[in-house]
Amino acid sequence: MNTRIRVLLMDDHTLFREGLAELLERSGKVNVVGMTGNPDHALQLALDTQPDVMVMDLHMPGTGGIDMLQRFRQQQISLPTVILTVSDHQNDMANALRAGARGYLLKDMEPADVVQAIQRAAGGETVIAPAMTTKLVNLLDAKQDKKNQLLGQLTQREQQILGCLARGDSNKIIALSLGISHDTVKLHVHNIFAKLNITSRVEAAVFAVEQGLNLNSGNLPHRN
Predict the structure, then answer these.
(1) Phi, psi dihedrals of residue 169, rounded to the nearest 5°
(2) pTM of the shown model
(3) Cα–Cα distance between 85 and 104 in angstroms, integer?
(4) Which fold has domain 153-219?
């Protein structure tokens, strides 16, 4: 016998909330362990019931879905959260995903599709309403374009040093391998962080790998 997914619902519309709970329960695959339209109550229910997934509206009076995600993070509550909303705006989806939402679904979806998406979210997947997939691709393309623009702001020497950072080289090793002073390396690293809007060598390494930067520093001309 399959274990039901334990779900907590938060929506400020009582009729919708109760109707959704009934539909989910009727599927035989979901157990609604709690539901509320009150943010503080939602936090307490999350702690008390330990659900597998929280399904939450996006735009609510007072504390909306984004605010709730931020409150969860502040209180170190790790709870996969799926936004279920009427909003098909790309920016709303982007903000929800940036805030840590596990999924973004629309209220006009078929109940069976919502149930399936909740199951997938409980299993660790990110779920997006089919009607939003093109907008998600647009978001990803825009994000990549921005990264390409950031990379283009770096000089050849800075790209070279970024590759060294991605390999885990220390400033001393970079200085020796490139034949420049330690202070010059520090200045370049500072400039790289500022141009890429990052704060750590780990972020620099992730950026370099994502951009497919050639980590062989010898392939770039040596110039200060």
Answers:
(1) -70, 140
(2) 0.64
(3) 8
(4) Arc Repressor Mutant, subunit A (1.10.10)
